[in-house]
Amino acid sequence: MFCVYSSSSSSIKSSIFPKSISFPSSHFNNFKNPFLNCKTPMENQSFSVLSASKAQNGGVIQDSSFQGSESFFRSVLGNMEAIYLNKNPTAKAILELVRSADGDQICYDHFAFRTFGVNGHGIDSMSKFFLDFGYERREELRFPAKKLKAFWFSPPKVSTSSRGSGVNGPLPRIFISELLVDQLSPEAQEIIKKYTNISHCGKEYAALASAFGILTWEKPSYSEFQQLARESEYAAWTLVNGYALNHVTISTHRLASNLRSIGNLNQFIEENGFNLNSEGGILKVSPDGLLLQSSTVADSTSFEFSDGTTEAVPCSYIEFAERLVLPQYKDLPTEKVEEFHRRDGFEVGNADKIFESTSKDQLTRRAA
């Protein structure tokens, strides 16, 4: 049985599904079939990890090209976005608020996903979809205290001008993290392995699960959720949200108004009654001072567990990122600055604090 979230996507022009997701039982049977008898995926693919700043030779950017149907790819991203917005009213309200103040040219810096690093359900399960369409795997980031690792993926060149908004604009970077399950207690490992084993070959359909807003395993019990939450809030979040889009990030420096400054945007958001993640300070700044990030506190939703218990669980949040111009390009006229002139990649210190947007401490602060 899949966990299906009803959603309304009328406001998402790029959605490939109708206004609500409501499937007859026969559809679930159809969905289950691919998961039952599937071949073992190639878990250990060979990737080239490149530097955060795109390599340049004589001003030419070395980058991958888009592969496949761009309209299909953007439609999948669009439905991931639609599911995310319908489950997270804060993100939807903020996007509408920024559009009303700045115009309809919001660009996404990155999409982020969480995974279980066990039995092939980790980073590779979600990254395959993006790699197949021309994304390139970049640096690894490690978070020892949280027992996490992550990779980010740079977008390919596209044939269109990509001057649209949201998923129809410049393709976002992708950030995928995974929980290092073998570092957890035996009890926590047992719970996670129980559900990833139920999922079986669901790991091969991670992007599909994300685009439909469904789990690839059965609903857990409330006691199992609580047990994981005591040891790893990341684990508990992933158990009930699966491959759902964890957050999207607005690229602030691509905005047209004074909100292009992340400090102004943060003030604007707070003045409109939204709580920002305060862990490590509202503004998270990389050591080089060139990557500035902030995020809201996650929304919550009611979740009916397998034992019939219904409780609020954390959903997702929205992030904001300003990438400043690299020192070697500081004298470029503003109108000539392109994205590759700016600080690329991610920062462990920033990301570590952004992860806290779904933590109990931040959710409690939101409710206060």
Automatic annotation (TrEMBL):
GO terms for molecular function: dioxygenase activity. The keyword Membrane does not apply. The keyword tRNA processing does not apply. Gene3D superfamilies: 3.10.180.50. InterPro entries: HGLS. Its cofactor is Fe(2+). Its EC number is 1.13.11.93. Keywords: Dioxygenase, Iron, Oxidoreductase. Belongs to the 2-oxoadipate dioxygenase/decarboxylase family. This is 2-oxoadipate dioxygenase/decarboxylase. It comes from Solanum verrucosum. The lineage of its organism: Eukaryota, Viridiplantae, Streptophyta, Embryophyta, Tracheophyta.
